[in-house]
Design brief:
Elements: H1 6-22, H2 30-39, H3 44-68, H4 74-97, H5 100-118, H6 133-153, H7 156-166, H8 172-196, H9 202-226, H10 228-249
Helix pairs in contact: 1-2, 1-9, 2-3, 3-8, 3-9, 4-6, 4-8, 5-10, 6-7, 6-8, 7-8
């Protein structure tokens, strides 16, 4: 059993609060918290499972922040969640079956994929108009893929934001709010599976949860008040941070 260290807990709390505050609109905080836990000695499966527990509260904090300002498309959030939950079920079980070495390699590939997606350009000012049916169908399929990735490795927020903006024409802020609902259900499914498998370290999970709850709630309100332009600048900063993280963990 992984021992609890107060020093590690302080580091985890500080980093988690910062990345969830910044990532409240963009998502992707797991791309920092999971590697951090691995760096501090967590096995990959435990790192993912424990951050899923904190992500549960992270989604609650972001939900209250965005719903307070009516920046959530509930219809799309529910549809996306139903599809994504199927992918999350398969993704979570897959991680528990593969070896530690393979899990690290797959995670590195997923993080690189998320980084590439982060560099995609989009017109965040377009609303849901003139969207072809094939484009929407592909967007629905993406929910399944994202559910699998999120269930196994987290970090689904980045992909969800781009899916909602590129395939469903949402503006950046509404997409950020709507992805919270989908992420919440992906997280819930994966957390149940990991908890039943005994992979969650509950003490560190509580530390992560408290930091995530406050970070995402305050970050969601901040991004809404400051506007979409600033949020996208913060998003670009996250991309740079992800790049540095990838270089450090190569």
């Amino acid at each position: 059993m992984l021992d609890f260290s107060f020093f590690k807990a302080v580091i985890i709390f500080a980093v988690t609060f910062f990345v969830t505050f910044v990532g409240a609109s963009t998502g992707g905080s797991a791309m920092f918290t999971i590697p951090l836990c691995i760096f501090l000695g967590f096995p990959v499966h435990v790192a993912v499972a424990t951050t899923r527990f904190s992500a549960f509260f992270s989604m609650l904090g972001a939900f209250f922040g965005f719903s307070k300002h009516k920046k959530i498309d509930y219809r799309m959030g529910i549809i996306g969640s139903l599809i994504a939950c199927v992918g999350a079920y398969f993704g979570s079980n897959m991680l528990l079956l593969i070896s530690e070495e393979l899990a690290k390699k797959v995670m590195g590939f997923v993080m690189l994929l998320l980084l590439i997606v982060s560099f995609l350009k989009k017109n965040s000012s377009k609303e849901k108009t003139s969207l072809s049916e094939w484009k929407k169908c592909f967007g629905y399929f993406m929910f399944f893929i994202i559910g699998g990735i999120g269930g196994a490795f987290g970090g689904q927020g980045v992909l969800l934001v781009y899916t909602l903006t590129l395939f469903f024409g949402m503006n950046f802020i509404v997409a950020a709010g709507t992805r919270v609902i989908v992420s919440f259900f992906i997280t819930t499914i994966s957390l149940i599976i990991y908890s039943n498998a005994g992979a969650v370290h509950w003490h560190y999970g509580i530390v992560l949860a408290v930091a995530s709850l406050f970070g995402t709630y305050l970050g969601a309100i901040y991004s809404i008040k400051k506007g979409e332009g600033l949020v996208e600048k913060i998003f670009e900063a996250i991309v740079v941070m992800i790049s540095l993280k990838l270089l450090c963990f190569s």
